Amino acid sequence: MSDTGQTIAERAARYAAWFGPRLRELRTKAGLTQAALANLIGIAQSRIGEYESPTTRYAPSWETVVKISLALDVSTEVFLREPTENP
Q1: From CA 8, how far away is CA 86, in angstroms rounded?
Q2: pTM for this one?
Q3: Neighbour-count burial of 86, counting CB atoms closer than 10 A to its CB (0-12 exposed, 13-18 middle, 19+ buried)
Q4: N or C: which end of the chain has fewer CB within 10 A?
Q5: DSSP string spanning 5-55?
Q6: With the C-alpha atoms ordered 15, 66, 47, 86, is the resulting torsion angle positive or negative?
Q7: What angle do CA 57, 16, 45 make, to 5 degrees?
Q8: Residue 79, helix vs strand vs coil
């Protein structure tokens, strides 16, 4: 258990909830549309929209997270940081 008293499952759920808003924030900062990012990494634009949705049931694979990170020129670790913009 971490110093904050949260279990690993609780921490993982919090980080997972940050993924979509963080992706949208980083994609926007990179000046990319959902379609452009999807084209760069070889997936459908609708999947990017699903990843960015706050109510999504879809989680990207590790390979997809790596591809997104490479396309955005960021470390995969940035997805463990809380988004700075409100979703």
Answers
A1: 25
A2: 0.84
A3: exposed
A4: N
A5: S--HHHHHHHHHHHHHHHHHHHHHHTT--HHHHHHHHTS-HHHHHHHH-TT
A6: positive
A7: 50
A8: helix
